[in-house]
Amino acid sequence: MLKIDNLSVHYGGIHALQGIGFEVPDGKIVTLIGANGAGKSTTLKAIIGLVAASSGSVSWNGEDLTGMMTKDIVKKGVVLVPEGRRVFPNLTVDENLSLGAFSRTDKPVVASDRDKVFSLFPRLKERMKQKAGTLSGGEQQMLAVGRALMTRPKLLMMDEPSLGLAPLIVKMIFDIVREINKEGTTVLLIEQNAKAALEVADRGYVLETGRITLTGTGKELLADDRVRSAYLGEAG
Q1: Strands 203-208 and 29-33
Q2: Which residues of the chain register pLDDT less than 50?
Q3: Got the DSSP string for 189-204?
Q4: Which CB contacts under 8 angstroms, 24+ apart, belong to 226-234?
Q5: How far is CA 46 from CA 57, 72, 165, 176, 214, in A?
Q6: Residue 101 and residue 129 in contact, taking contact as beta carbons nearer than 8 Å
Q7: I need a labelling partner for 72 at 20 to 30 A (CA). Which of 15, 46, 53, 227 fits?
Q8: What backbone torsions phi and psi does residue 91 show, to the nearest 5 degrees?
């Protein structure tokens, strides 16, 4: 289980996260929704060690991750698919996937995991020798997810996976999220597409200006008038 306890983050004089707390139980999909600037990406960066916590703690299966180096957090099975894909544009699809497994020594299993990524994303196999920078936005998102899966994550964190993608690709990405979760990977999902996120989530949290203001199951938040009005474009 991932547990966030009273977590605060400052950027200079800006109090980006103001003592938030939530849990991501093993085997579940949890989503954080909120507007731009609410602190969603900052939360993920604090968990993975890319920004320092001002106070509070992040623990994974009872082990304190607070202050730990990102590379060591990744080795524990906590992995981030960053916003904007962040693939290596001058490397091929295959080379990007290999970088996802750079710290692994179980080469036969790595080969099996690569085949599994290609079964999830057949387009990546078709473009295996193609440079990542020449892929479409949707294909780059597939590659970013595939690269993360090559680490064999126990907790997969995804930052705005649907951003800028066509509706058909968005549906495919969320279908893959469900599939990954069914196979045992815990998922923490950050999304502006609140409807899509809450439809797949076991539990959701609403983040507003650095504070968690609402929580509930995905279905409960989809039915909440405040969520429907603020994030789903529907009248309360």
Answers
A1: parallel
A2: 236
A3: EEES-HHHHHHH-SEE
A4: 227/33, 227/194, 227/198, 230/35, 231/33, 231/34, 231/35, 231/194, 231/195, 231/206, 232/194, 232/195
A5: 10, 14, 26, 25, 21
A6: no
A7: 15
A8: -105, 155
Question: Residue 222 contacts by C-beta under 8 Å, 6 or more apart in sequence?
Answer: 195, 198, 199, 228, 232
Amino acid present at 212: I
Tokens for 169, please give them: 């690709």
**Tokens 């060690």 label which residue?**
49
CATH topology of domain 2-91+152-231: Rossmann fold (3.40.50)
What is d(CA 109, CA 187) in angstroms, rounded to the nearest whole number?
A: 22
Separation CA 186–CA 2 (nearest Å): 9
What is the pLDDT at residue 193?
A: 87
What percent of the chain stands above pLDDT 70? 99
> Tokens 């001058």 label which residue?
90
CA distance 70 to 205: 25
pTM greater than 0.70 (yes/no): yes
Which pairing describes strands 29-33 and 55-60: parallel, antiparallel, or unpaired?
A: unpaired
Q: Please state, in angstroms and rounded to a whole number, the distance separating the CA atoms of residues 69 and 189.
A: 22
Domain segments of the chain: what residues? 2-91+152-231
| Cα–Cα distance, 197 to 146 (Å, whole number) | 20
Q: In what order do the strands lie in the sheet with 55-60?
A: 14-24, 2-11, 55-60, 63-64
What pLDDT score does 85 carry? 78
Tell the residue number behind the tokens 């479409």, with chain if given.
Answer: 136
CA gyration radius, the chain: 17
CB contact set of 139 (below 8 Å; sequence gap of 6+): 123, 124, 127
